[in-house]
Amino acid sequence: MTDPAAFHDAVRDEASAVLIGNEEILEGLSIAALTRGHVLLEGVPGVAKTTIANLFARASGLEYTRIQMTPDILPADITGTHIYREPTGEFELQRGPVFANVVVADEINRATPKTQSALLEAMQEGTVTIEGDTLSLPAPFMVIATQNPIEMEGTFALPEAQRDRFQLKLTVDLPGREMERNLFDRFDDEPDIGPSSVSQVVTPEDLEEARAAVAETHVADPVREYILDLVRATRDSPDVEYGASPRATLAFLNAGKAAAAIDGRSYVIPDDIKQLAHPVLRHRLVLSTDAELGGESVDDLITGLLDSVPVPEEATRESAVADQPADS
User: Fold this and answer.
1) By three-state DSSP, how is residue 105 classified?
2) Where is the AAA+ ATPase domain (predicted)?
């Protein structure tokens, strides 16, 4: 399977055996997986953040580990350490739970910043250094962190460097009445239903082939300029203390390719970038003091930026196709 759209559809359909709604969250996870990204899921307790991550990993055939983050967890509890074995008189490497394809850092903002930082090297380099030894992590490798809203008691804000390493921040909302009714009807009929009810429908090899197809997705020059204009607007806005980094620019580029491929297109259009603006930017922007005191939210600010940054007229669907290389 090399078709990214087929990869996403297979995972989504299998996960829907348990999950009701949240299709956009599953699409975000597919986008990240197809572009070697990491995802931060935020929502109040009980909205199935961890379940969504587990379902995605199981349906994708990826090795899954879950780390329950708490204030007393140590970096070595994540990465691993050397343990002395008395029978042999030698130290043996005990690998931590980070050595998996999909690592779920559950309630990441309940761990201290020092412990949160244990994931920095893993997320950026795909390696872990344990007592001077640098070890490669399994491929593919993806971190899905869940987080409760920052204002809730007993949490620590993620450091800026940590947040920037997440390609997307997705918000898991409370379900509407009809969706919640469908939810408790399903669990009333099948009380034991859960992630174990989901089967593997794709393989890691399928994922690698789909990634190669995503990399070939075309991005026309007007769309590239639109991405640059949007990122620049975050840096120039008087309501933003710290704007988006170059890593955000690359996140737009890569995630835009995956979104287009999932939609069955071989080229990116401005609407792909618009739909990704909130997930790509909401965790990277730091509001100015005046904006915070004025009650402005980051999502409201991003919406305003989307309204203020013009979409180039030439960046239409037709020009995106015409601008593709002749052999595409």
Assistant:
1) strand
2) 35-176
Domain residue ranges in the chain:
4-191, 216-317
Q: DSSP secondary-structure letter at 17?
A: T
- Cβ pair 170, 52 in contact under 8 A: no
Which positions ≥6 away from 3 have C-beta within 8 Å? Answer: 210, 213
Q: What is the CA radius of gyration of the chain?
A: 21
Q: Which residue has the tokens 């737009």?
A: 252
**Rounded Cα–Cα distance for residues 32 and 27 (Å):** 9
Residue 32's closest CA among 169, 139, 160?
Answer: 169
CA distance 35 to 30: 9
**pLDDT in single tens digits along all 328 residues of the chain:** 579 999 999 999 999 989 888 999 999 999 999 999 999 999 988 899 999 999 999 999 999 999 999 999 999 999 998 888 878 778 888 899 999 999 999 999 899 888 888 899 999 999 999 888 899 999 999 999 999 886 666 778 888 888 999 999 999 998 889 988 988 888 888 888 888 889 999 999 999 999 999 999 999 999 999 999 999 999 999 999 999 999 999 999 999 999 999 999 999 999 999 999 999 999 999 999 998 889 889 999 999 999 999 998 755 555 555 556 555 4
Domain 216-317: give its CATH code: 1.10.8.80
Matching fold, domains 4-191 and 216-317: no
The answer to whether 299 and 170 have CB atoms below 8 angstroms apart is: no
Indicate the burial class of 131 (C-beta count within 10 angstroms; 0-12, 13-18, 19 or more). Answer: exposed
CATH class entry, domain 4-191? alpha beta
What is the DSSP pairing of strand 240-242 with strand 286-287? antiparallel
Tokens describing residue 273 = 């970038």
| CA dist list (Å): 60 to 47, 57, 196 | 22, 5, 13
With H, G, I as helix, E, B as strand and everything else as coil, classify residue 210.
helix
Q: Which residue type, as a one-letter code, is found at position 222?
A: P
